[in-house]
Amino acid sequence: MLRLASNILQRSSSRTLASSRDFSLQLLLQHICPQQQDDFQHQQRSCYFGQSKASSPSLSIWRRKKEMGKEGLIVAKELKRLRSQPLRLDRFIRSHVSRLLKSDLLAVLAEFQRQDQVFLCMKIYNVVRKEIWYRPDMFFYRDMLMMLARNRKVDEAKQVWEDLKGEEVLFDQHTFGDIIRAFLESELPSEAMGIYDEMRGSPEPPISLAFRVILKGLLPYPELREKVKADFLELFPDMIVYDPPEDLFEDQEWKSESKDDY
Kindly report the CA angle at 35 between 34 and 40, in degrees rounded to 5? Predict the structure, then answer.
C-alpha cells in the first residue's frame, strides 16, 4: 500500500513539474517572442487532438483494412466449391459462415467483391445483415452497389437499394457521384439516372465535384448530359461546364457501330 501511494505521488509530482515547465516556457516566450508562443500553443493543441483522434475507434468498420484469418480462408474456399450446390451451400452457410468472427466475415465479403463473385457476395451480404453487431452503414452499401454495377447486375442492385432505403441509409454527395459513375461506365444509364434522381432529392447539400464526376460519365449520352448540365448550372450559376467537341460523340457512335459489325 505504501509503495502504491509512493508511485501515485511520484506520477502526480511529475505531471505538476511538467505543467509548471510548460507554463514557465509560455511566460518566457510571451516576453521574448510572441510569435513563437503562438506556435508553441498550436503545437500543444495539435498533439492533444492528434492523440485523442488516434485513440478513438474508426466510425465505420467498412473503411478498415480487412485481413482474412485462417478460418476465413477455409470458409471462402469451401463456399466457392459449393456454389453450384444450393442445398449444401445453404447448409454450410448456416453451420459455418454464421459462426465466423466479424473480422473474417467482413474479409470474406470484401474478397468476394474484389473477385466479382456476385452470387456469393449476395449470400454473405444477407448473412451480415442478420448479425447482432450489424448497423446500417453507407460504406457497406456503397461497396455492394459498386460491385453490382461493375457486373451489370440490375436486379440485385435494385434489391440492395430497397434494403438501404428501408434502413434509412443516406449517401453523401461524393458517394452518389461515384455510384452513378459506376453504373454509367457499365453502360446502365437508366439505372444511373434513377440513382441521380435520388441524389437530387437527398437532404445532403449538393456539391459541384459530384456533378462533374457524373457529367464526365455522361459523355456518351448527350441528351442525359444536357439534363444534368442544366441542373448543375442552376445550382452553381457561377461555374462553367466544359463541353467536348461534337465530333467526339460522332467518333464514339462510329466505334460503337464498328463493334456491333464485328
Answer: 95
- Tell me how many helices (H) and strands (E) the chain has: 13, 0
The answer as to whether 28 is a domain residue is: no
Each residue's pLDDT tens digit, 199-241: 999 999 999 999 999 999 999 999 999 999 999 999 999 998 8
Q: In 218-245, which ranges are continuous DSSP H helix?
A: 222-235
Alpha-carbon gap, residue 208 to 212, rounded angstroms: 6
Handedness of CA 52, 110, 139, 224 (dihedral sign): positive
Cα–Cα distances (Å) from 215 to 25, 44, 184, 242, in that order, read 56, 44, 10, 9
- Do 245 and 221 lie in one domain? The reply is yes
Q: In this predicted model, what pLDDT tens digit does every residue of 102-142 receive, in sequence order?
A: 989 999 999 999 999 999 999 999 999 999 999 999 999 99
**Residue type at position 183:** F
Domain with 180, as residue range(s), is 137-262
For 69, list phi and psi in degrees, rounded to 5: -80, 180
Q: Lowest-pLDDT range, 50-64, 79-93, 140-154?
A: 50-64
Q: Which residue, 103, 134, 165, sits at the end of a domain?
A: 134
Query: pTM of the full predicted structure?
Result: 0.70
Does residue 152 fall inside a structural domain? yes
**Domain stop point among 95, 115, 134:** 134
The one-letter amino acid code at 107 reads A
Residue 20 lies in a domain: no
